[in-house]
Each structure stands twice: as structure tokens, then as C-alpha cells.
Amino acid sequence: RWVLERYGFDIVSLTNADIGGTLKDRIDVLLVGDEPLGVLSGDGSRRLAPAPPLGEGQGRIRALDTFVRDGGILVALNRSATAAIDQLGLQVRNVLASLSRQQFFAGGSVMQVTTDPSQPVMAGMPKEADIFVFGSPAFETAAGFDGAVLASYPVEGSPLRSGYLLGEKYLQGRAVALDARLGEGHVILLGFRPQWRGQPFGSFRVLFNSLLR
Questions:
Q1: What residues have CB less than 8 Å from 126, skipping those under 6 apart?
Q2: What pLDDT shows up at residue 45?
Q3: 175: left (phi over 0), alpha (psi -120 to 50) or beta
Q4: Fewer Cβ in 10 A, N or C end of the chain?
Q5: Are the C-beta atoms of 171 and 131 separated by less than 8 Å?
């Protein structure tokens, strides 16, 4: 919120209780931060809130699905991207999901990725860009995926620029950002933290472009 306010975006904060009904009448873009359960988690504190009752949770997911299919844009950052994949049934999987800490680990690291600046979300980004990852996913699309790869890890070598990385082979050639079509709308999956603590100025543009998609 601080980053968006600083750069002049007109925003409104939604609580979990607000995720319901006809979202399209209230907002154009829904941005979900680094929440492991997406719209099902968070209670205003730093701790992971328990999942809501089944009926309530299904209602939020239905509202989210309808919002996107009716032309809305959902922007999911980092771990909320994997929640969006599961909740909306996107033809994408997180290739790191089943790996142990002994197989793969990257905590608070800077990685280099290859972007596609021809895509609106990556407009103005350099072809080779640095991103900040922490508990972040890496994506593989499946048959039936409708959308575009916005940025990927290099096919060979290590993408590590700063920090620590174990298991580079699991990242090689994988997507780090996707634009998935769903009905008339879009789900922007950003498998990193473009706004982390207001510091990575080099990736703010990706966040801003996503909101203006």
C-alpha cells in the first residue's frame, strides 16, 4: 500500500469480508499480497489466519472467479499466485511445491530473469532484469493454458545475483511471471516480490504495469 500511495495510485483496501458479491461494481483490479491462501487468509496481523468455514471460503472463491471472468484483473504476488492457481483452476503448476528444503532453497535472494518487454506487464523492463524472491514459486504451464509467459529463469546456469540458492536446476527454464486469461479477464501471476519493503525499484514497474493492464 505504501508503494502504491507514494506513486499516486487511487486504491482502496478490502478486508476478507469485502471479497464477495459483485466485485466488478467496486473495483477494476484486485491486488493480493504475499498471502499463502490468497483471499482466504489474513486477518490484519502477521500470522497466518485459519482458513474460513467451507461455505464462506467457497463464496469468496466464486466472487473472485466471477470478477475475473467478467473482465476484472487479479494480480497475485508471490505465494498468493499459487493460491490463485488452485482456487481458479488455472492450467499452471508450481514446480517447487513438492521439493524439500534440502532439494531447493532460496531465501531473500536476488535472481536474474529474462523478460518479454513486448508484453504490457513487462513494458519498459530490460530484457535481463533482477527480481527479489523469498519463498517464491516457479511456474510450468500445462496443456490448455491460455495466456503468455512474461518472464522466465535462464535455461542454463544459475540465476543467482545475490544471496543464496540451492537447487538451481529446478528453476532453469521455468516461468516466474505469467498472464493467464480467464473468461474476459486476466490473472497476473508474479512469482516474486516486486515491492518488497519498498526497496526493489527495478521491479516496481512490473507491479504498476499489472495494475494498468
A1: 115, 117
A2: 44
A3: beta
A4: N
A5: no
CB 197 within 8 A of CB 82: no
Which pLDDT value is given to residue 19?
Answer: 86
Low-confidence residues of the chain: pLDDT under 70 = 41-56
Burial (CB < 10 A; 0-12, 13-18, 19+), residue 44, is exposed
DSSP labels, 7-72: TT-------GGGSSS-GGGT-SEEEE-S-TTGGG---SSSSPPPPPPHHHHHHHHHHHHHHHHTT-
Buried b vs exposed e over 111-131: b needs ≥16 C-beta within 10 Å? bbbbbbeebebbbebeeebbb
